[in-house]
Amino acid sequence: MNTSIDGAAIVYCENAFNTPNGKTAHGLVRFTERYKIVAVIDSRWKGQDAGSIIDGIPNHIPVVDSLSEALALSAEQREMPKTFIVGLAPDGGRLPQSAMKTIKEALRNKMNVVSGLHDFLSENAELVGIARQNNCTLLDIRKPLERNKLHFFSGKIEQVKCKKIAILGTDSAVGKRTTAWLIVHGLQKEGFKTELIGTGQTAWLQGAKYSIVLDSLVNDFVSGEIENAVFEAWRNEKPDVLVLEGQGSLMNPAYPGGFELLAAGRPDFVVLQHAPKRLEYDGFPGYAIQPVDHQIRAIETISGIKVKAITINHEGMDKNEIKLECEKLHAETGLPTFDVLEYGAAELIDILKNELK
Amino acid sequence: MNTSIDGAAIVYCENAFNTPNGKTAHGLVRFTERYKIVAVIDSRWKGQDAGSIIDGIPNHIPVVDSLSEALALSAEQREMPKTFIVGLAPDGGRLPQSAMKTIKEALRNKMNVVSGLHDFLSENAELVGIARQNNCTLLDIRKPLERNKLHFFSGKIEQVKCKKIAILGTDSAVGKRTTAWLIVHGLQKEGFKTELIGTGQTAWLQGAKYSIVLDSLVNDFVSGEIENAVFEAWRNEKPDVLVLEGQGSLMNPAYPGGFELLAAGRPDFVVLQHAPKRLEYDGFPGYAIQPVDHQIRAIETISGIKVKAITINHEGMDKNEIKLECEKLHAETGLPTFDVLEYGAAELIDILKNELK
């Protein structure tokens, strides 16, 4: 497959692959329509297969020791990557100094550098100088647009006539985006013209054309930018369905999210992603995750919008626990419950098709 | 009274005084510990008393036709204001071109200009030039801090041992901040050491020392900045009570707010500000405001935190309707209900004192 819109890319993930700080890299090696990922850099895992490391299934993307090794490999395969992606997502999104050296090396190799960190590469004078000398670009996908390009909520969402599904979660980093893509592709396979409305940097990297980076938006524009992304996707693509990627979780102490998506995106219904074995909020030990039925009640009370299905993240489960856990959640909530990552989205899509009629 | 920390000031509110777009000016003429307001500019109300216009009670702040009239008046009273405050809060926060002329005139009169608009005066080269020539400053209170000065949520809120009350509302521009100050001053009078945690530009203008401007924060830092403001106020001031000013409203389509305050501020309870006669969200005709009992259920479901009292905004009511409306809300919700703007906060403070034990 070489149809990706921005071509071949190397992902930098030194010291972070297969850790929570490698989230961006994991998303990219699992799936992207924007790039063709040719190698991941993390010396700790050199010589291994990226897919095998994180999912136990080879995906033929090698993990290499260094940028020079990645470039040598690409030269062998006659596919020189034009893009270097900083695939780190450290807590706080700040750039480790150790990454700087490799970024400079990439620029000197005429590669465009893409970063989703909070520290903006394009504001570093030295990097800007090297990029200019080498005629390549520094793209900070978390850098907010200028204010005069941002939108306030206007109510134009009411004109959007297609169906809208929001994928919310009971925690952050719980699998909302992965489920959202599986639903998008499942619906497309069934003949529904479907687009993802991405709300994080990884969805953009994966190719979601109508994307905003919610957590780097100035708060006052959050509702308006969600509304605008949904509206533009509807107007330009004339889709049957829009799938809205949630961020954070409703009752998360650090990342309370999903409200704006419900308020401004006005979805027809919600699919809720949940990790049954996770007891405390990701990154915040001591903060217990509220039971799933409580979280469903919260979503429905706040928005009047119904949760129509649960999708689970099977972390911490044996394979034979998965079905039992789905049945248990079904019994507790009355909602159909699936593990779409393990078993695919076909059964869920059948349910959604009914809701979309 | 001349104890204000930043001295005498003129408030510019042309075409907007006594309208929702004059919200910032209204806050300032009602009360500020930071400035002494000597005049309001709005030619539509010239010659009248600012307090009489908005509250029916004279406060001896004249509304004048123009800046030159305001300055002439100040000269007469030998109190030359050093500050010119842009007291407009238009939807979207953008600066009307008509205001520009007066801002330049203020700078040429050696006045420092303070603005809470989204269009930053300090990024306008012409204004910066005039300010420099006249040795005065342009202060954009909505301009976000640099990222490296911002805080992520850490959980340190758990160390805060004083009581915390959040003032939420059923809409934006409904009177949350005014009620918050009345509660702060009422508790102070009863001997509780109390601080306001301001969350909007007006609270800062009014002198709230521990203030953030929520709607101009980058989304990822909202929880952490709330936590940090509460924590710093507690650590530095050793208060008995912190009163947290809410923004927007829980179910508002354009400004869904209050979640972060509940999640990261972790108040002990909520006081809910409500305008019984307001049927649609401020600025968004066609969007019906959910009934107050529904909104209370939403707050309590999402946070587990109880609403302990309702305070009403009596807009659209005859004076004799107020008591009836309070009784009606009390019957509907079981909660004590007061109009603190009309009748003062004493009765409410009695209730809060019990809760604070």
What is the topology?
The structure is a homodimer of 357-residue chains.
Chain A: E1 8-12, H1 23-30, E2 36-41, H2 50-55, E3 63-64, H3 67-76, E4 83-86, H4 97-108, E5 112-115, H5 125-133, E6 138-140, E7 163-169, H6 176-189, E8 194-198, H7 201-205, E9 210-211, H8 222-237, E10 241-245, H9 259-265, E11 269-274, H10 292-303, E12 307-312, H11 319-333, E13 337-338, H12 340-343, H13 346-356
Parallel strand pairs in A: 1-2, 1-4, 2-3, 4-5, 5-6, 7-10, 7-11, 8-9, 8-10, 11-12, 12-13
Helix pairs in contact in A: 4-5, 8-9
What does this structure look like?
The structure is a homodimer of 357-residue chains. With 357 residues, chain A is an alpha/beta fold. Chain A is built from 13 helices and 13 strands. The first copy, chain A, has helices at residues 23-30, 50-55, 67-76, 97-108, 125-133, 176-189, 201-205, 222-237, 259-265, 292-303, 319-333, 340-343, 346-356, and strands at 8-12, 36-41, 63-64, 83-86, 112-115, 138-140, 163-169, 194-198, 210-211, 241-245, 269-274, 307-312, 337-338. Chain A has a seven-stranded parallel β-sheet, sandwiched between helices. In chain A, helix 4 (97-108) packs parallel to helix 5 and helix 8 (222-237) crosses helix 9. Chain A is globular, with a radius of gyration of 20 Å. The interface between A and B is large, with 43 and 43 residues.
For the structure shown, list the relevant keywords.
6-stranded parallel β-sheet, alpha/beta, homodimer, 357 residues, 13 strands, 13 helices
